[in-house]
Amino acid sequence: RRRPQRLLDRLAADIPDKMPQFDASGLCVCLHAYAQLRRRETQLFAAVTRRILLPSRRDDLEPSHVASLLYSHVRALLSDKGLVAVAQAQLSEDAGRLSVEHVATALQAFATLQVRDEAAGAACARAVAAKAPTASLTALTDALGALA
User: Fold this and answer.
1) Predicted TM-score of the model (pTM)
2) What is residue 38's three-state secondary structure?
3) Do residues 82 and 43 make contact, with C-beta atoms less than 8 angstroms apart?
C-alpha cells in the first residue's frame, strides 16, 4: 500500500519540472488521475493550472481542457480563482461552442464551488436548449440539474 503512495508523491514532485514535455491534454490527464484518487496535491494542481492558463498558451486552450480542470479541482476538493475566471469568461462567450457534456461539467463544478454567474448561467441555458434535440439524456439531466 505504501509503494503506490510513494510513487504518487514522487510523480507529483516530478511533473512540474517535466511540464514542457506535456501538451494541455496530457497535463489535464495527470490532474484527472490525481483527482480520481482524491489526492489533494495543491502544489501540483496550482502549477499545472497556471501553466495551462498562461496567456501565451490560451490559443491551445480548448473547452474540454477547462471542463477537465474544473472537474479535477472539484473532485480533489480544490479551487482556483484564475481557473474559475477563465471558465466564467469561456462559458459566457462560447457556451454555444461547447458540448452539452462540457457545459454540464462546468455547471456542476460551479455549483459545487458556489460560483454564481448569471451571464454564464444564461449562456449555458441557451446552449443546452439549442442542443437538446441531439444531446444525450444523461448530459441534459446533468446540465439541467446544475442549472437548477
Assistant:
1) 0.88
2) coil
3) no
